[in-house]
Predict the structure.
Amino acid sequence: MRRSAMISITCDNCGAERPERLPSSEEWILGYDIELESPNAVQRSLRFLDHWDDRRVMEFGAIHLCSEQCKVEYKTAEAA
């Protein structure tokens, strides 16, 4: 009996769903979009990991991107 995934990971830019098993040629990007507030300012920080880590996909502020193109589009949209 094959078990299905308990969560579904989608690209935060285009909405593509990440398959449970990826072909070796396909690499998703995991990063963080964190907003920090202080009494004087609000700061936003985008950070990207150098590799995918299944243990960290549900952490606070995690973003999931299916390609370099989606990463560029996400960064452009967030900068606007």
Remarks:
- The mean pLDDT is 89.
- The longest strand covers residues 29-37.
- The beta strands are 29-37, 42-48, 62-65.
- The CA atoms of residues 43 and 72 lie 20 Å apart.
